[in-house]
Write a structure and sequence with these properties.
It comes from Clostridium cavendishii DSM 21758. This protein is α+β, with helices and mostly antiparallel strands. The chain contains seven helices and 15 strands.
Length: about 250
């Protein structure tokens, strides 16, 4: 595959990332080396690459968490461990409630690029974070507070201690199964605001950017709305008295 064909698989907004990835792809395919990316990528990048994995080059991705959104990409990796660490961040202040934004903001304030860390899961003032191994030591040495509260950091090495995926369930009522209607209801925004999210590439359907507002969703579809979270269309619950469709949505928590 030549460079132009490779880059054409991605959105125009991803041109710079696609160019860097082509260089790694070319080295791995030409020389048979195992090559890992130094950044973690979103599904609109890693899913495209996984789909072209073949007998000539193996391409896979890993983000520690089950169904991780942000992942390191590996070319020709058959034996080596991915250079990722799972870090547990604990805040023992019972008088505040911290959220995803608090933890991410504190990490970013250290000057770490967003693409060097992966997914974060937060519960009861404890955050589990996947991070590229090259930034792990820096985080352990320099992240001392979340908001204004002291924190403790530890690397979780035993996979048995990795947090399990959990969901929050909610029911939405929509006029149709069109993606724009479902996005508007899930994100609790107007239909016009949902269209803006779609047009700006912030909505992924089953890990691919989806701009088509009239696309119908199906059971078990995964919908990612950047800035709002990741969701599963879990179950159809019939119709309301007004004739609107009732759908159970699971949000990754």
């Amino acid at each position: 595959m030549d460079k132009n064909s490779f880059i054409a698989m991605f959105r125009k907004e991803s041109f710079e990332e696609a160019t860097k990835l082509y260089d790694k792809f070319k080295i791995a395919r030409g020389k048979g080396y195992t090559v890992f990316t130094k950044e973690l990528y979103t599904p609109d990048i890693w899913k495209v690459l996984e789909d072209i994995s073949d007998n000539f080059i193996k391409i896979d991705s890993y983000g520690i968490f089950e169904e991780a959104e942000r992942r390191i990409i590996a070319f020709n990796n058959y034996e080596e461990c991915f250079p990722l660490d799972l870090i547990k961040i604990t805040v023992k202040n019972k008088f505040i409630t911290l959220n995803h934004r608090d933890f991410l903001g504190s990490i970013m304030s250290l000057g770490i690029n967003r693409n060097r860390i992966g997914d974060l899961t937060v519960k009861d003032n404890t955050c589990y974070l996947s991070a590229h191994r090259e930034v792990t030591t820096y985080l352990l040495d320099n992240l001392i507070k979340i908001r204004n509260s002291n924190c403790e950091l530890h690397i979780i090495e035993n996979e048995k201690d990795y947090p399990k995926v959990s969901y929050d369930a909610k029911t939405i009522n929509v006029n149709s199964l069109r993606l724009d209607a479902v996005v508007a209801s899930i994100a609790n925004v107007s239909r016009s605001e949902a269209l803006i999210l779609l047009k700006s590439g912030k909505v992924l359907l089953n890990y691919y950017v989806q701009n088509e507002k009239s696309k119908d969703i199906s059971l078990k579809d995964k919908i990612t709305i950047r800035g709002y979270g990741k969701f599963i269309v879990n179950e159809y619950l019939g119709s309301s008295k007004s004739g609107r469709l009732k759908i159970e949505i699971l949000k990754y928590s």
